[in-house]
Specification:
One of its GO terms (biological process) is actomyosin structure organization. It is a single chain. With 538 residues, the chain is an alpha+beta fold. Among the domains are: 162 residues, Up-down Bundle (Acyl-CoA Binding Protein); 126 residues, Pleckstrin-homology domain (PH domain)/Phosphotyrosine-binding domain (PTB) (PH-domain like, Roll), CATH 2.30.29; 60 residues. The chain is 44% helix and 13% strand. It has a five-stranded antiparallel beta sheet with strand order 4-5-6-7-14. It has a four-stranded mixed beta sheet with strand order 8-9-10-13, covered by helices on one side. Strands 2-1-3 form a three-stranded antiparallel beta sheet. A hairpin with a 5-residue loop joins strand 4 and strand 5. Helix 3 crosses helix 6. It is elongated, with a radius of gyration of 30 Å. 29% of the residues are buried.
Amino acid sequence: LQRDAKGQYLFDLLCHHLNLLEKDYFGIRFVDPDKQRHWLEFTKSVVKQMRAQPPFTMCFRVKFYPTDPAALKEEITRYLVFLQIKRDLYHGRLLCKTSDAALLAAYILQAEIGDYDPGKHPEGYSSKFQFFPKHSEKLERKIAEIHKSELSGQTPATSELNFLRKAQTLETYGVDPHPCKDVSGNAAFLAFTPFGFVVLQGNKRVHFIKWNEVTKMKFEGKTFYLYVSQKEEKKIVLTYFAPTPEACKHLWKCGIENQAFYKLEKSSQVRTVSSSNLFFKGSRFRYSGRVAKEVMESSAKIKREPPEIHRAGLVPSRSCPSITHGPRLSSVPRTRRRAVHISIMEGLESLRDSAHSTPVRSASHGDAFAGPGRGGRAESSERVAVIADESYSPADSVLPTPVAEHSLELMLLSRQANGAPCSIEEEKESEAGTPAAEAEAGELRALCPGAGGLGPAQAQQVNKFVLSVLRLLLVTVGLLFVLLLLLIVLTESDLDTAFFRDIRQTPEFEQFHYQYFCPLRRWFACKLRAVVSLLIDT
């Protein structure tokens, strides 16, 4: 990869490799050394966006979930969206009731192993596969029952299409959760979907704001503000607190991109957005892609032979094992596999709790709009929808480190045998901690022993503060210069007011007028006549 290669070049190269034309729904995601997720910006250099040395680890993901995934033009696009939603199901992002979960898992089973065959699929065969963060024997029996009796004869493409149609109807479809806290300190997950902005708390969707009701989004430090204008000119402000300023900025940028993609009619309507009301302060960002309506119109014009799909050829993510590798998982005893998975879930719970353990100062922000315990909900937010039988608690979706599948399994088993819980937090640390990042951190620690030094996030905050101060100084000097010029022009004009008469009669003004202004005016007039005469002669 060339040093000046833009993100668009890398993305186009990847889509060409996948033979993908409906590519606007997808993006490339990476995690920086501070474990903060980012979407690769296509208008910027890839190398400059990475805060580590190559090789870089990135992931191909669905960035904008289709409003109607069944309406996608090509099967290859539907298949890739299917893989993403299957991953969401595994990570607990697509949370649903038990009956819906059983049907979704049965569709996956039918798509990947085909019709039920008593000779190939013995009793309890569905327990060999991992569809969700947590399983129960009752759920596994229900999955097998649906697979045997209701889905026989469906091709992989048909099962995937039915899976997408069912997933689209769920409350958490398209949710990419951002952990936050409301003004009361209650944990919540914020997300942007094809239909609007949602807030999830417990097992309920407590707020849903349509895109046409969102008037503005901004952030200051860790605080995220969402301005909403609803019926009868009712205006409210939703206020939430992210774990870090970087996480808050990522939340803001995701909101700007999602609103532009789903709300606007044309990409020419996209405008640069500032995170602050003052043009010299805050971050500025502009969505650079096409909008959903343009993507649909472009998809309708695709006329080519459907590309061949190699369903078994795609390497599964480390963090989301494909069920096509079921026989490998089945070699682990059932009780051992459950113990391993329970230890992973304990790690997830500890990670989720630690992510929200920072005390949040209870604050009010005008019409600050908080969780379900506070009064005065807006009309569209009053509909509290129960999304599942249990609380929404997704695993952190981290990037996979390329490792051999068998080594991962041995690592899980050895840790379980030694009594050490295998948490996702450790996996995230191993994935974010590249050798280059560790070397850089070691150099910083060596330069500042004992003091700890400035971390990348702190250094970035200092740089932002310095740039903000410099911008303020430049703007102040510029405004003073403009005001001075305006005052000179007004005092030298024929405007006759008491204020300007008093100024003109002062000795300082008369000295300035005769020694500086008049010679400068004659010089400009002479130069202007010379230029005009030169133009006339030519």
